[in-house]
Fold Acetyltransferase (AcuA).
Amino acid sequence: MRNTVLSPSPHQKTIMTAAGPIYLRSHCSPLFIQELEPDSGMRAFTRLPEHEHALLLQIAEREDTMLTIAYTPAGTIVGHIALCPVDVWWQNLEAAYEIGLEVSSNWRQLGIAHQLMQLVFAETAYEEVIVLGMGLYWHWDMASLGLEPFGYREMLERFCAAYGFTEYLTSEPNIRMHPANIFLARLGKNAKQALVKQFFDGLLRSDTLPGL
C-alpha cells in the first residue's frame, strides 16, 4: 500500500462469550503472533491450521497491512481480520485495503466476528480509505450453516452492511467466476473525491474492450 494511514498503535478489548473470555488485539506484531497457536477450526484460507498460522505471520510482518486477532486466554487464535494491499485489478487505488475475515468453525455463533469488525472500524483512519471485500464462494464454510451459495451470499451481505459495506457490480475476474461471488466496498466518509473516482472508474473496466 503506497499510502498507509492506519495508526500502528494496538487496540485491545476483552469480550465475554458463552465459551468464556476472548481477547481482541489489533495491529498485531510478528512476535505476538509467534506466541499464539491456531485453533483446529482455522482453515478457511489455507485448509490447514498450521498453514493459516504461517499466513498470519506473513501478514503481520508486512508494514502495509493490519492484523487483528481474537484469541483465548490459553493463547489459541480463534479469529482474525486482515487488512492487506489490494490486488492488481485495484492497484491504481492509492488508499485502499482488502479485508479478510475468519472465525474458527469451533468458535462460531458467539459474536466474535461482530466484535472484530467493531474493533477494527472504530478507528477513524478507516474513514479516509476504501476497504474492499471479495466474497468468493470457494472460501465459504457453507456446510456448517446448512446454506447454499446464494444463501451464504445473502448472509454475508447483511453482515457487512452493518459496518458500512455496499455491494457494487464489477467486472473483476475473480468475482465473475461464479454468480454467487459478491464484491463489497466501504467508502470512507472522508475519502478524497479523487480516490472515490478511481474506485468507480475501476469497477467495470475491461482488459479486452478498448475504452472500457
Notes: The two ends are 25 Å apart (CA to CA). Residues 208-212 have pLDDT under 50 and may be disordered.
